[in-house]
Each structure stands twice: as C-alpha cells, then as structure tokens.
Amino acid sequence: MARSSEKRSATRSLTALLAILIGLAAITAGLAQWGGGQYSPRLGLDLEGGTEIILEPVLTGGQKVTPGQINQAVDIIRQRIDANGVAEAEISTLGGNNIDIAIPGTPTPEQLEAIRKPSQLTFRAVFVQTANVPTTAPAPQGTAPAPAATGKASDTGKASSPAPTPAATRTAANAPVPSALRAATSSPTATSTATPAAPTATAPPAPADQPAQNAAQDEKAIAAQTSVGLVGLGWDKKKADAAATVVAKKFVALDCSVSGALDKVVDDPDLPMATCSDDKTSKFVLGPVEIAGSEIADASSGFQTGPNGQPTSIVEVRLSFNAEGAKTFADVTRRLYGLKDQPPRDQFAVVLDKSVITAPRAQAVITNGQASITGNFTVDSAKQLAQQLKFGALPLSFKLQTQNDITPQLGQEQLTLGLLAGLLGMLLVVIYSVFQYRALAFVTVLSLVVAAVMTYLAVTILGTTHGFRLTMAGVTGLIVAIGVTADSFIVYFERIRDEVREGRPLVAAVETGWKRAKRTIIAADAVNFIAAVVLYVLASANVRGFAFTLGLTTIIDLVVVMIFTHPMVQLLARTEFFGNGHKWSGLDPVRLGAKVSPRYRGAGQFGTGPRPATRATTTAPGLRSADGRGQA
Predict the structure, then answer these.
(1) How much is the pTM?
(2) Is the dihedral of CA 419, 425, 431, 437 positive or negative?
(3) What architecture is domain 2-40+409-608?
(4) In CATH, what is the architecture of 50-116?
C-alpha cells in the first residue's frame, strides 16, 4: 500500500510540473500576443544596445547646481527607471552638472518624458474647476448654463447673492468627474468613487455678441469664489480679494489646449495659481501649497480590497505620509470634508510640474496618514500615478540636451560565445553523469532540460512584466546555475548508492536516500539564495543581473529536484532494469560493493539475496578446511 501511494505521489508531482510548464508557456504567449511582450528574453545594453540621453539642468537667475542636488537627481531617476524591476540602465553624472542616462532598447517618448520631468510635486486645495473652454469666446448655441458657484461673502457665514455665471462654469457639467479620496482601509465603507456633476439648469443660449461681457463676469465670479477659498484658509479679506483678482484674470486668459500654455504659469507656493489638468481638459484655480511632495513616505497601486477581504474590480492608489505630512493631511481633510456640500472646494489637487494629475474629492477625515485615491483608473494609469507620487520630486528641472542611439557593447558574437559556453558546460555535466551514473544520467539530462525551459520562460515573462533585461552578467549567472543543479543531482544519487551499499532494495534506497539528501539540497540552495540576495542588495549595475539570475535559477533548481528528479527516480526504481541492478543502470550492487543483492520479483516488487561472490574460493587437493568440513 505504501509503495502504491509513493507511485501516485510521483505521478502527481510530474503532473504538477507539466501544469507549471504549460502555464508559463501560456503566460508567455499571452503577453506576446496582447501584453506587448515577446517570445524571447529582453537583452541589456551590452547585448542589444539602446538609447543615450543627456539631461542638462535648467537654471534661473543666479541659481547654482550643487553636487548634492545632482546626486539626489541621479538617485530619483534610477528609482523611476528601476521601478518595474531590473532594467539594467546606466546612470552617471557628466561634467559635474549634466546627467548621462543609457537605457536598453528603444524607450517611447512618454517614457523619456517621465524620466526627465522636474516633477515638483505639491498638494493644493481646489477653488474653481471647469472644463477647458476659452472663456473669451461666445458660448456655443444651445448650451444650457449650470447654476453659478456661490460662496460666503464674509466670515459671518451668510450666503452671498448669486455670482455672475462665468462662461467656463457653464460647461462644468462636461468636466471630468473627480476621483475620491478616503482613508486607506482593508474594508472600505463606501464603494462609490465619484460624485456626479451638478444638473444643468434650463436657460436660453448666450448671445453671440457678448464675449467681452461674459469675460468680465467670469473674472468677477472666479475672483469671488477664490477669495472665499483664501479666507477659509485664514487669509485677510483684503489680501484675499487682491490675490483672487490677479489669479482670476490669469484663469480667464488661460487656454489649456494651446501648446506651452503652462510655460508662463508661475508656481509660487505661497500664492493661488491658475493651471490645467495634465490631459488639458480642465482648468483650475488652486490655493497655496499646503503639503509638499517630499512629505509622502510611500505610494502603491492595485485593486481595492472589499469588506470580505477579497480584491474588488476598483483600482486604487494608496499613499502614506511621514509624521509631519500626516498631521497636516489630517487638518486638510478635516477642512475639506466639512465642505463636502460645496464642490469643488472639497477637492485636493495633486500638482506635478504645474499640471494637476488628480484632484480627488475628500470623503473622510484621514488622521492616520494612510489615504486611498479611487476614480476612473486603469491598472496602468494607477501604477503611473503611484510612481509619480513616490518618485516625484526632483531637486532641479532638466531639459534634454542630446539623444543618441548606442550600439551593443558586446553584441551578438559575445552572446553566442556565452551561450556556447553554457552548452559546453551542460555537455560536460552530461558526460560526467554518463561516466559516473550510467543510465541514471538520463534523469540528469531531462532535469537539466526541464530547468532550462523553465528558466527561459521565467526570464521571458519577467522581461515583460518587470522590465528584466538579460545582460552578459546575467548569462554568467545562468551558466553558474548548471553547476548548482548538478550538485543537487550528485547529492541525491550518492545518497541512493549509499543505501544500496547497505543492502537495501532500490525502492527503499530511493526513499531513504531522498529523506537524507533533501535536507542537504535545501540547505545548499538556501545558502546560494542568501548569497544571491545579499549580492543583489549590495551590488549595482550589471552585478545585480548576475545575482538576480543566480537567485532565480536556485529556486528553479529546488522546484525541479522536488517535483521532477525525485519522482522520476521513484518510477524508474520500480522497473526491472534499475530495480534488478543492471550493470548499466548505475545502481549495480556488485559494482557498488553491496552486502546483499536486490532481486526483482515483478510489478515493482523486490526481495534480497546473498551477495554474489566476486571471485572463486577453493582449497588445495587433499586438504581440509580449518573447520574440518572441507574435502578434496
């Protein structure tokens, strides 16, 4: 019964391995067809080449660049590039001021823009939000105006008379619905991610001959609403009115659809500003900076967790603040949540390089510094926003000085030589196995093939999902892995042979030998993996590629030994060829010096018999043996 159970266990393990290989192949094919992947591993700079860009800092007035600023910018840019995994990019300073970046492959313009963006990240309150319609133009015929925004006329809390309806506000119903800002919890109490736009009122179309009058009304209405917002932040009424008048004129004149519209926008952290959304569809009047991007401790993205603890279909961006930022954020959300009936004053804009990348609506008072932003996010857009929040603040603004294509440093010839070296190493392992273990080398060869296929598929998938690129150092790690895998086979096979020498039948020798070898194999692989992790953490550049492939192949070696090598030997031990100790099986008890010889009884059953004599023993004619029983 026990032997039958072992056979079923071996069959299940091999079935599981087949399922894993089919799954990896299916993922590779799916990513290649629909996920922008490919059927081969992505290569690094030294094997494929790439793009070199040189960034030059933009200085204003008497500003000077310090080495600390450049080093900080290099660290942030490296984090941006490596945010998806081991990208194998090379980043260095050039001439003390410029930054030289070499990126494998051909990056898209969006990727290059994301790398060099100055990304001065700030958080500002929203006073006005409208769709981007030039306010100096007449309103489209047939457009129904929305109710005008109203605010508090004074600190007494009395509502003022309705302000003139600005042309931009008349199209607010068409503006993008803001996302939601709530406390980050595992069981959110609300699933709604947006507040619907206010219904439009019925009114006659605006006359086509009143653009100038509309513009004047716009400025007054926006200035009034902005002044209310500033007073709510504790500003003096007179000072608030003066600042609101200035920003209202800028808002009316701003057309986000014009290229370079934000170039003239002054991002003064102490004053309100008129700006645009990053997709150019909305305009904003924002308050002074209340939280700097440097106060964000971490940001991540993913699917929101529902009340039952299971992921939902809602994509969210989670962010956490440091101690100082959490305290400020609690005060801000307490104020915004109190304005939930006065949109858009309950919104908090995240401003990246003068553009609003998101303006979520506060749906709770967040006191622990852990916030969740939800809205019309896709997985990719949420991931991009999380990276902008996490790695957003560069100490300087940079412009692109030069961009050039770079050729491979090693090229196809060196890659071919490296692969040949790997094949030669594998061939030597096979030759040694055949010489040492005879037919048992068949298991070694198949195990190496399975490990190679699994490694190839894993590296290909990681190239698409995590930006991993295979460099010559990584190829070296794969070659070293052949020796790691061979060590596992040798430990296991030698344990089995030790048990055969003790006189155990092969089936029992396989199980006992595996119990002893398994501990040694796990310990050896654990040491290799720890070494790979330490090297990956402490090293940089291409050495990390070597450490990564070494760690990956160590894990694959353990998987292959557990669910392929051992089950295969279990099944082979039940055959007559191996079980009866054929001289070419590699488990010949005579050759191994066994005390007894296993006898095959069929159907995977064995018995034992006396060890066959290695040479004849005779006595001289006419003499008796020492015990007197012998006879000539």
Answers:
(1) 0.58
(2) negative
(3) Up-down Bundle (1.20)
(4) 2-Layer Sandwich (3.30)
